[in-house]
Amino acid sequence: MPLPPSEVETYIIKVTFHRATTLPPADLPSFSADPYIMAQMDTPSLAPRHREDPPLRYRGRTERNTREPKWEDEWIIGGFPKEGGTMKVVVMDEDFTSHDDRLGHLKVEIRDLGGPEWKDIKRQRFELKKRWAGRRVNLARAASNILNPLKLCRDKTYRHQRDEIEISVEVIGSLQPGEEWNVGRAFTLGPGRWWQHYSPLLGRIAGTKGGPGEEREGRGKEGQVAQYDFEANEIQLQGPTPSELYHRYVDFKWFVAPLFTASGIRGKLLNKAIHKQHARVYAYDKRCKSGKFEYDPVESKPRKEVTKKFLELAHWDQGGRQFTYVLTLNSMLRFCETGENFTTDFMSKHMGHADADVYVAFAGEFLIRRIDPHAGKGGGGGGGDTSVKTHPPDHLPGGPPDEKAPRHPKHYELVIDQDSGTYRPKKELLPVLKGYLERNLPGLKITVLHSGSDELKEIRKQQAEAKKREGEGVTFMRRGSNYSSSISSSEASDLENAAHRGEGGSSSRAHRSKLERGIGILEQPRAEIQAAARNLS
Question: Running DSSP on this structure, what letter comes out for residue 320?
Fold first, then answer.
């Protein structure tokens, strides 16, 4: 059932995280920190559709090597109820080599919006609570006090300094009953942002050491196994996802539900592994590139710069790439390259993209094709327009593989489906997805196809052939446990085999990863010992 729209007036608020002062040190021996904001907005008066819905969260940018960060980060929230809510703010220290550490936390109560007693919060300072700070933070703080005893004794301001963060909360608009965005839940309205993450976990391209953002020209040798500098992308789209787009994971095997709900020993370990993999690949380290779209998310619709950035992150139509994507309930589009040429099961999968969220808006795969804008005007509805030439399979001048890709959205077509065995979105909702994407990616021709259609199979075949001709020609390395595989419809049998290995005979136990063997020892120690004895004999 779609979520019923709100029958009362709701508000659009802008939260600004200005700066912080005298944060504790977190890094040794520099006695500095790489602080960023993690915020969560809870609105008790707006009941979620399901108790397992992911919370409304925001992640700010990182200021490096400072204890006095000046972020000026904005978070615009739509559909905020008059009754208000509670914003939980955590200041974290980014540490890519290990887990991020907590520097401090606080709560901001927002109540009675629109009432006579409501006043905007203007650059108010809130003290950070130091409880539950990370162990490395406490160690660095203690070491700083030991190494600066004179300053600690003589400087009264140093002794009595407070860790504070400066925050503003303003009401900048309202949504009346019946308006399109007054959907009965709070959502991130802006600003429009994008990130491109580079993961060293899959290495580099064979024969090259290309850095982030460089054009990857040249090909590896035929059949060569190489590591790839893996790219994972995020785009914050505008407005709430349509209420119809709401899908839960499909519990098609016994091991799926424990993985998502973190129940049982196996479920807890695998759920933690998925979160860790997601954090590693979507890491906000120094290599991560990011930006903000220059348009007012409240007053105007997305511009073509959003479409251009999306195409740029997808490498236009270069190399015959295919992508796996997830659209979260908070309008975050996450995607990375996938396809038959990728044997990695580490991260390019729907479960990993969604960070093991129980519910998402939509999921599947897509590809980008270049079209001849002068050959015809396809509607881009339920199928492709045969009157428009596309690359692939046709050779179109003025673009890859011979020339640089054109930079205008009118030259491209997005072919998108719902091929996700993890969430299995309904094909009847593809037109709803199309309408939402058309609004957020103006100027781009969008074609939605059912994952089982013959037309899509033919398009994928053409894309794979283009990959062989124009791509790097590299097979990527397999990493990780079979349990972190995609659970896509084309690979469901692989997961079933992985599950049977978990139940296992002795022949299958020998081929399991260390994680799987460790889980087996915890759950069935006697069976594992007997299997090990049989293998030794």
Answer: G
